[in-house]
């Protein structure tokens, strides 16, 4: 298929319905697992027939399908993996996501027509590794989650433009390096590197040190214990322009175990945000017509301005982080700390607690980014990440001055919004009526939102009258879940669109 001329929004799917939902809500590509050899065994995942149907559905709508084949395999699994790759090549999917270099070379030999994407679990953290994988046939590298934006820039500046960079943009984080963890295996016998993680990093823990009385471990505790490893979720909506400007080709939403509603809401939000980026950066008009070819803003090695561009805050913070200096003072240029200004620090080196660390003389120069105004997103987009179940949000590791941390007092999700129904059909008769399958109670005067592809949600106040049950009888409210009702609605809405409403009281929802 023809390569896309804009950043890709990559959505998760745990089953065929999730795949179709992601495509319907604007995903440029969907990643999903089969019944074997993927890193998420909790979702139902897709059969070979599901892949055939899903790939055809996606291709008809200009989207692509990637299959996870990213476990760390054992010797006795190789023959089965070989057969599985042979089966997958007949389904019409577009790419395989692999971790193991042996599996990568096997797939390259068996199914050369499929793209090879190297999983985040391969731990790619530098351009040397990315280029080596490209030489071996990789079309894309999914960078380690622990990369900051400057590291993304530096990789982009030193690899071929036809090697995609995929980065995470939203969803759950992991306490282990790019997901390579043995805690689940050790505690439960469920191998996290074979898709069976029990998520023990979300469990309750208490720390006891018998031989060091008086030593205080700085972890907030509740009466029930503490959650030592419970990472915050990622939300890069407000910083999407920074990530795209830094060379990310594909923006990956985490969540193959999530609901179809989560997939729809987050796919729609990030796809719409990317469209806003393209318009405000001058690549497209409001109708989506190309005005100029898309290109990130990274200055490549050898290009004019690479060596002498001014250092910016991200560069300074990245240097401090790589040098093991988490207390880097990122005040403004005119601010003072330790008797030296940040402007002077930019000229002479790095500053930490009043001390200077001279810049390395090894010839290394960070890749700069050509400046551009911040992309301003509409308020409704900024609110969308808070309308799905989520933990406390962070920007992951992208900004070294404010890295992801743990929620040490809880592991549950916040839930401020509730799915109350799903559209079955819409008819123009009687001025317009929508038929829904109910999920939760709806009563007159209640504000409800219809989640619509490619646009802001449609607000709707449940009327006092005109609500009918499946037999056409008028009822005072929607009060039975999993029942069919119809409501007056003069605006056409698509089948499967979710209806949601704010909860009367925000709750914590178990995973």
From TrEMBL:
GO terms for MF: peptidase activity
GO aspect biological process, one term: proteolysis
PROSITE patterns the UniProt entry points to: PEPTIDASE_U32
Presence of the UniProt keyword Hydrolase in the record: yes
EC number(s) recorded for this UniProt protein: 3.4.-.-
Chain spans, region Disordered: 334-370
Keywords for the protein's UniProt record, in alphabetical order: Hydrolase, Protease
Protein name: Peptide hydrolase
Protein species of origin: Bifidobacterium animalis subsp. lactis CNCM I-2494
Lineage, top ranks: Bacteria, Bacillati, Actinomycetota, Actinomycetes, Bifidobacteriales
């Amino acid at each position: 298929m023809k390569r896309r001329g804009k950043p890709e929004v990559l959505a998760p799917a745990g089953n065929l319905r999730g795949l179709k939902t992601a495509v319907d809500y604007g995903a440029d590509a969907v990643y999903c697992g089969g019944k074997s050899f993927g890193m998420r065994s909790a979702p139902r995942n897709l059969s070979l027939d599901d892949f055939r149907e899903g790939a055809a559905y996606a291709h008809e709508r200009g989207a692509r399908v990637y299959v996870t084949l990213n476990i760390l395999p054992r010797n006795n699994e190789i023959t089965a993996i070989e057969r599985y790759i042979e089966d997958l090549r007949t389904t019409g999917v577009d790419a395989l996501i692999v971790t193991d270099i042996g599996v990568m070379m096997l797939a390259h030999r068996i199914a050369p027509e499929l793209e090879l994407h190297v999983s985040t679990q391969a731990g790619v953290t530098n351009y040397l590794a990315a280029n080596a994988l490209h030489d071996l046939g990789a079309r894309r590298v999914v960078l380690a989650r622990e990369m900051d934006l400057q590291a993304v820039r530096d990789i982009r500046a030193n690899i071929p433009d036809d090697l995609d960079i995929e980065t995470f943009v939203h969803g759950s984080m992991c306490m282990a390096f790019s997901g390579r963890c043995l805690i689940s295996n050790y505690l439960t016998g469920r191998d996290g590197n074979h898709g069976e993680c029990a998520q023990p990093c979300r469990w309750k823990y208490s720390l006891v040190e018998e031989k060091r009385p008086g030593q205080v471990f700085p972890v907030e505790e509740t009466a029930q214990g503490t959650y030592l490893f419970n990472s915050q979720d990622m939300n890069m909506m407000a910083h999407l322009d920074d990530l795209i400007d830094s060379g990310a080709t594909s923006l990956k939403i985490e969540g193959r175990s999530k609901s179809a509603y989560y997939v729809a809401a987050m796919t729609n939000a990030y796809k719409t945000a990317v469209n806003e980026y393209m318009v405000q950066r001058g690549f497209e008009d409001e109708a989506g017509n190309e005005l100029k070819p898309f290109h990130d803003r990274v200055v490549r090695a050898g290009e004019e301005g690479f060596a002498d561009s001014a250092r910016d805050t991200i560069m300074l913070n990245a240097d401090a982080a790589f040098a093991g200096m988490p207390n880097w003072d990122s005040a403004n240029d005119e601010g003072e700390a330790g008797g030296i200004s940040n402007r002077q620090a930019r000229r002479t080196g790095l500053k930490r607690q009043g001390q200077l660390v001279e810049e390395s003389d090894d010839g290394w120069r960070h890749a700069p980014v050509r400046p551009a105004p911040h992309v301003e997103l509409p308020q409704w987009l900024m609110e969308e990440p808070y309308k799905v179940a989520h933990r406390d949000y962070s920007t992951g590791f992208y900004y070294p001055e404010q890295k992801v941390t743990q929620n040490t007092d809880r592991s549950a999700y916040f839930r401020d919004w509730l799915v109350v129904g799903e559209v079955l059909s819409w008819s123009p008769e009687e001025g317009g009526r929508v038929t829904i399958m109910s999920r939760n109670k709806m009563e007159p005067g209640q504000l409800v939102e219809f989640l619509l592809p490619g646009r802001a949600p449609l607000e709707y106040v449940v009327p006092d009258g005109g609500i009918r049950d499946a037999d056409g009888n008028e009822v005072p409210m929607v009060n039975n879940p999993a029942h069919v009702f119809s409501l007056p609605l003069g605006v056409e809405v698509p089948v499967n669109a979710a209806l949601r409403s704010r909860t009367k009281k925000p709750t914590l929802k178990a995973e």
